[in-house]
Write a structure and sequence with these properties.
By secondary structure, the chain is of the alpha/beta class. The chain has two domains: about 170 residues, Rossmann fold (3-Layer(aba) Sandwich); about 90 residues, Pantoate--beta-alanine Ligase, Chain: A,domain 2 (2-Layer Sandwich), CATH 3.30.1300. Helix content is about 40%, strand content about 20%. Strands 1-4-3-2-5-6 form a six-stranded parallel sheet, sandwiched between helices. Strand 8 and strand 9 form a beta hairpin.
Length: about 280
């Protein structure tokens, strides 16, 4: 595995791969790698000649400075995991390399960015768009792989690619879960023993809610899931939202849309968790 910390050197290597006719599969990460990340990478590796991974904790997508400070950083462990899956290129720049000057670009994603995470984390998706576009321009991948756990982020990135005609194919990848159902996340390692024990209730309640689709309206399903989640003493619920799976907007009747998901965000102790489940 080749490791690059500068834009100039990683671009030289990518250019050499492209001249040799190699296809590039890219997985952007903020490190603290887990099996969910590795699943994306295996898919990228199987669908391309070269696997490129980035590790960069992007400060401008954190609206809470304390969250940025506490975000787990495990670079040496991450490198070992990447070597094990035979990653070809790791791009691990520091903040000054990515942002030699502040990037104040403002992006517009309409209603996609005003609901759910957009409402609770102002500025978050603009920070995501800035860094993802920058990484696409630096690494020029043929395909980029994103997990559906961050489903709204995936929709934002698909919109970004369409708006700016960026020549990369976005590949959505299914949520990878622990054996007990908890969606894999770098933040899970910050959960206490008691918090980790109760965390699988999130998926359990979402699944149960989805199973009641034939007897509940979208609004009633939201209410049911909210009440069940609020019964868990350690959960501090932020939102439960049912939305269509394209524009991520609420709707009144199941037959109003061709696909839908139920989304949740909550605080568990000092850790913020999100999840979603496809309804149909």
């Amino acid at each position: 595995m080749q490791i690059f910390e500068t834009i100039r050197l990683v671009q030289q290597q990518i250019t050499a791969y492209k001249k040799a006719g190699k296809t590039i599969g890219f997985v952007p990460t903020m490190g603290a790698l887990h099996e969910g990340h590795l699943a994306l990478m295996r898919q990228a590796k199987s669908g391309n000649d070269i696997l490129v991974v980035s590790i960069f904790v992007n400060p401008i997508q954190f609206n809470n400075p304390a969250d940025l400070e506490k975000y787990p950083r495990t670079l040496e462990k991450d490198k070992a995991m990447l070597r094990e899956i035979e990653c070809d290129v790791l791009f691990a720049p520091d903040v000054s390399e990515m942002y030699p000057q502040p990037d104040n670009t403002t992006y517009h994603f309409g209603k996609l960015a005003t609901v759910m995470e957009g409402a609770f984390r102002p500025g978050h998706f603009n920070g995501v768009a800035v860094v993802v576009r920058k990484l696409f321009e630096i690494l020029t991948p043929d395909k980029a792989y994103f997990g559906e756990k961050d489903f709204q982020q995936l929709a934002i990135i698909q919109s970004l690619v369409m708006q700016f005609d960026i020549p990369v194919q976005i590949i959505p990848c299914s949520i990878i879960r622990e054996k007990d159902g908890l969606a894999m996340s770098s933040r899970n390692i910050r959960l206490s023993k008691d918090e980790r024990a109760v965390a699988p209730k999130i998926y359990e309640i979402l699944k149960k809610s989805v199973s009641l689709r034939k007897v509940l309206s979208p609004f009633e399903m939201e209410q049911y899931a909210s009440k069940e989640l609020q019964k868990i003493e350690l959960f501090d619920l932020e939102y439960v939202t049912i939305a269509d799976d394209i524009g991520l907007q609420a709707f009144a009747h199941w037959n109003d849309v061709s696909g839908a998901r139920i989304f949740v965000a909550l605080q568990l102790g000092k850790v913020r968790l999100i999840d979603n489940v496809r309804i149909f």
